[in-house]
Amino acid sequence: MRLVIATCTVDYAGRLAAHLPRAKRLLLVKADGSISIHADGGAYKPLNWMSPPCTLRMEEGRWVVTNAKGETLTIELHEVHGELSHELGPDPGLQKDGVEAHLQELLAANPHVLEPGLALLRREHPTDIGPVDLLCRDAEGRTVAVEIKRRGEIDGVEQLARYLERLELDGRLRPVRGILAAQLVKPQARTLAAARGIAWVEVDYDELRGVGTGRLTLF
User: Fold this and answer.
1) Would you say 138 and 118 are in contact if contact means Cβ atoms under 8 Å apart?
2) Looking at per-residue confidence, does 166 or 41 come out higher?
3) Which CATH architecture has domain 98-218?
């Protein structure tokens, strides 16, 4: 992990063009090759970023990041105020809370409750940006990525969309579609999921455990 605080300008060129004017920012370079640019606000979301696999070329006063699609992120370093590099080592990954972990276990054993004919291929299927909760195959033989949350919110949709983008790079899995499964899916998440072509399912936890008479609803 490398952290650099610098006054910089940033230009992205690819599917569209974007520009960040001169300002003091945090540049974060990770061992997986990704780079992200952060301001002192906006919570955890970067102002711009480049996901791996990508190549970082460091020149005098300038960084140029290029990915396999030919997109580029050019960072002009006007002044470097501080820098820190540290090896973090392997990460054990996010430990889900009891209900979320149990939901994943129950849905892995009964994927058909999410969609008739759905069959499990693998739990915690790895991608270069993190594991997909469930990788499944639908009745028509298509690959389906399932992300499981207690509460389905915008962040969950964004996370699943990123996984789908990475999975689509694997010719053995294409085409890949997604399902967000949660006990409750917020209205904003439903709207974003529809815009991204992602299905969502509200899961009755008690019913999955064999208690109650709630229903599963697929949209």
Assistant:
1) yes
2) 166
3) 3-Layer(aba) Sandwich (3.40)
Amino acid (one-letter) located at 99: V
H/E stretch holding 206: helix 205-208
Tokens of 18: 């974007």
DSSP string, 85-122: E------------HHHHHHHHHHHH-GGGTSTT-EEEE
CA distances from 152 to 27, 34, 81 (A): 30, 26, 40
Q: Which residue has the tokens 């053995």?
A: 172
* pLDDT above 90 for 137: yes
CATH code, 2-85 = 2.70.180.20
Locate all alpha helices (DSSP H) within the chain, ordered by sequence: 98-109, 154-167, 187-196, 205-208
Distance CA 49, CA 20 (A): 12
pLDDT in tens, 71-101: 999 999 999 999 999 988 877 665 555 677 8
The residue count for the chain: 219
Question: Amino acid identity of 33?
Answer: G
Tell me if 66 sits within 8 A of 53, measured CB to CB.
no
Number of H helices and E strands in the chain, helices first, is 4, 13
Terminal Cα-to-Cα distance of the chain (whole angstroms): 40
Residue spans per domain, the chain: 2-85, 98-218
pLDDT tops 90 at residue 157: yes
Residue 92 vs residues 1, 88, 98, 131: alpha-carbon distances, Å: 16, 11, 17, 11
